Amino acid sequence: xxxxxxxxxxxxxxxxxxxxxxxxxxxxxxxxxxxxxxxxxxxxxxxxxxxxxxxxxxxxxxxxxxxxxxxxxxxxxxxxxxxxxxxxxxxxxxxxxxxxxxxxxxxxxxxxxxxxxxxxxxxxxxxxxxxxxxxxxxxxxxxxxxxxxxxxxxxxxxxxxxxxxxxxxxxxxxxxxxxxx
Length: 181
Known about the structure:
By secondary structure, the protein is an all-beta fold. Helix content is 0%, strand content 62%. The chain contains no helices and 11 strands.
């Protein structure tokens, strides 16, 4: 039996997908992706998450995903999909029904198979993405969040040209319940 303060979830999945469209990086053309239709894909794996409260309104979270994605027609691993991903999060709020919240999030992504310009199999390097945000309930159900995507500016110009540091402002009309991840 789990303690009442601890939340965890484990999901096993097994999907049979027809006509899946994927985006593949084009190493010879910076800032370009190629859309490819895959006739038949099997995806199997596991997603897990653990969250727990900490003092002073903080919460911690850990997650892990294992993915085995297989292109049935080519009888090989599906391109553009990592086998492993892991994440770590730390959030804060000023209490139930509070007006302020903040979040820091790290996501590690394993190497990803891609094709080079001559259709040879190559692997994109593993990388880590980060996010920092601060939010406030403006009034009623209207929330505003400001933040930075890819705070640590993890960039591999050969593949992930769209993942440089970006600042954002987001306005949401939401329910009265706020979820931080």
